Amino acid sequence: MSTGFFGDIAKIQYEGPDSTNPLAYRFYNPDEMVAGKRMEDHLRFAIAYWHSFAWPGGDPFGGQTFDRPWFPKAGGADTMDLARLKADVAFEMFSALGTPFFCFHDADVRPEGDTLKESIARLDSIGDYFAAKMEETGIRLLWGTANLFSHRRYMAGAATNPDPDVFAYAAATVKSCIDVTRRLGGANYVLWGGREGYETLLNTDLKRERAQAGRFLSMVVEYKHRIGFEGAILIEPKPQEPTKHQYDFDVATVYGFLKEYGLENEVKVNIEQGHAILAGHSFEHELALAASLGIFGSIDMNRNDYQSGWDTDQFPNNVPEMALAFYEVLRAGGFTTGGTNFDAKLRRQSLDPQDLLIAHIGGIDCCARGLKAAARMIEDKALSGPLDERYAGWNEAEAKAMLSGERTLEQISQRVLSSGIEPQPKSGRQEYLENVVNRYV
């Protein structure tokens, strides 16, 4: 039975590039074969529960602008009936868009209880409700996670909190979320350390807090194996906000942390485009680095407003950026347990229910165009050919010997001095390669 929130809406269909229908796909054809695989299976789209259904439209300078029927009325309580209505609308949208996955935090899907025991019971109840919806629609869970940042108890962090009772409370919360994620067949479990950082060293024991975070993550991995959870454990890097210094700043920082605690073979990363930008990187840089380190897992898809200095979580609309991102995803072998989660939200003035559909349709089409361009670039060796040519000298026997340990510093020096080697710079051809990318998009 329809909730009527979106009106009389049919499933969004692929109508091709010439379509002007705002409620149709122009580039995303789930059954189209791209590089030997269905487009849907390449992209593995997921809808984020929090931005689409839990966010009220506020910002640092103003409160709620969205009026959703599942939001508590002024002065009223958040109830399980409202949570179930929210789920009904959510699965209507997932089904209309034809996206195969969704993602959630515990706090997105159930009202907060007076005690942790009550909150967990409510999450379990909604988990049962989700299970029935998933059985009915075929929608799957890409990943679950715990909100360890919104409540005031987490103002000084969760795993890194100076109060061991907060650490314990967070651990119990994560356990409950992993349990529900496993029960729903989730492909991954994500830990986002929203407040795992610090504002000032004046009141922070940095070494102690990192050790706490390391033990917390180790316990999560141990529990995963104990209960037989087959999904991947993911960390989502995030620089700066909300705390000034984050322990999970970027992919490189997270990898160093994983190495320190012997978890580099147990945990992968969920990389967000907007977070990459806030860290001073490009999205493709973070993807390529994660792949090269063996920790690439999944992605959160959005974009930032480059005129703003914070995480604006807008829907993607830059095809060249998406082409370079999916180029790195394909080079990494594509997704296994991961996927493309739209961690993106409407603008505060986009009030109509259809805006939710239109925003996702546009983002999905943008990703589809990027994927197709990336696949063509790989097939044509448009970028890999020039790259191989640039590093071709390292295929020579003497070059290999230098890297393999067969040559000492003295031997290399003697060869250069005796042969009179005088290297001549060669063009990196950056502008040419940028033009190549633009030919494909």
UniProtKB/TrEMBL annotation:
The residues responsible for catalysis, as annotated, are 105, 108
Please give the Gene Ontology molecular function terms for this protein: magnesium ion binding; xylose isomerase activity
- InterPro entries, alphabetically? Xyl_isomerase-like_sf, Xylose_isom_bac, Xylose_isomerase
Protein EC: 5.3.1.5
Swiss-Prot/TrEMBL keywords: Carbohydrate metabolism, Cytoplasm, Isomerase, Magnesium, Metal-binding, Xylose metabolism
Oligomer and partners = Homotetramer.
Query: How is its cofactor bound, per UniProt?
Result: Binds 2 magnesium ions per subunit.
- NCBIfam families associated with the record: PRK05474.1, xylose_isom_A
Q: Which GO terms describe its biological process?
A: D-xylose metabolic process
Protein name per UniProt:
Xylose isomerase
Highest rank taxon of the organism: Bacteria
Its needed co-factors are: Mg(2+)
Listed GO CC annotations? cytoplasm
Which sites bind Mg(2+) 2?
A: 272, 275, 311, 313
What SUPFAM superfamilies does this protein map onto? Xylose isomerase-like
Localization:
Cytoplasm
Indicate which residues the UniProt annotation says bind Mg(2+) 1.
236, 272, 300, 343
Annotated family: Belongs to the xylose isomerase family.
Catalysed reactions listed for this entry: alpha-D-xylose = alpha-D-xylulofuranose
